[in-house]
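Quick check before the chapter quiz. The format below is the same one you will see on the exam, so make sure you can read both the input and the output lines.
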Amino acid sequence: MLKKSNKQREELNMSKIYFTITGMNYYYGTEVVEKGDEVKLVKEPDNKYDKEAILVKLPGLGGIGHVANSVNTVMGECYSAGRLYEHFKKKAKGKVVAVTSKGVVCEFRKD
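Here is the expected output.
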């Protein structure tokens, strides 16, 4: 089996887009999601606090948080809501890859 070079690994990782769910403590907390869960993303252009707001929904519960859009809330190599906003029209999906005390990291998936 051939080992992947660092460049090959970087190219593979760059093809995936990750985002952080933030503000979950204002909804149900991080306890409502676990690794592998699918979430839905819905743009909120009329949000009075952020014109690039993206609501994160969990089937059966509705809104559980928002895609992070601040240097204080975006974790690791995740995209901010502003960067992610251009990658879909109105709705998209994500898959939970990590749940931490600071937030939830998801992989972005186009509808």
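If your answer matched, good. The longest strand covers residues 91-99.
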